[in-house]
Known about the structure:
By secondary structure, the protein is mostly helical. 71% of the residues lie in helices and 0% in strands. It has helices spanning 12-24, 27-46, 50-62, 65-86, 89-100, 104-117, 122-139, 144-160, 166-176, 184-191, 196-211, 216-226, 252-266. It starts with 11 loop residues before the first helix and ends with a helix.
Amino acid sequence: MDPIYAGWLSIIPPIIAIALALITKEVISSLIIGILSGTLIYSCIVGANPIVGTVDYTFQLMASRVDINIILFLALLGALVAVVNLAGGSQAYGRWASGKLKSRKTAMLATGVLGSLIFIDDYFNCLTVGTVMKPVTDKHKISRAKLAYIIDATAAPVCIIAPISSWAAAVGSNLAITGEFESDLAAFVATIPYNLYAILSIVMVFLLCFVNLDFGSMQKAEIAAQKGELGAVDQPNAEGTPFQENPKGRVFDMLIPIFALIVFSIL
Length: 267
């Protein structure tokens, strides 16, 4: 597929996808409809048959080598998280951190720091940091809403400004088609200074954690957490799961896989 200039029509697919996601609460189906609307617009502009072109271009996008690599990358990251959890590394790190972090402020700041260090992928970040830091934040009566905010405000923002991440591959490949950059990486790096949302989000999360400032719904959630109402109930493991978590896991069972992932990704 060759790039084309669609003007204001280019914003219709994301608007459709976001609107449907908010209305139906079904993200995957909303994204599919958004993609189909985009390929329909592309087909009409290039003069192809609207129906045949929409189907053909959609399958071309799905068969893209870059997209397949990203899907495979995310699947392997999910497997890595599962292995770390089954090895007991996440729980071991949580127990270790609970003994070292003595206050609410240090617990929140440590969550932000850990979220900033895991920059390979935002989904991997959320799964890892959430699993590891829940025992720590629960101990200090930090609401799950506050934990979710800290994780979310560091996960994607850190990944979108880190040259070694799944975002770098996705964003860089889309920008490289303009022909203005030498490589995908160069295209991605050029966008970093302009990612004001990501930069400000990271700054704000550490500032709010340091001054312990809450307002609005977050303030209500934190007040409830102080009374023991953390705001979420952990779901039990699915029935029939053939593997059980190792109760004798060590901190290194989590640190070594993550460290190896980061090092080999850079190399």
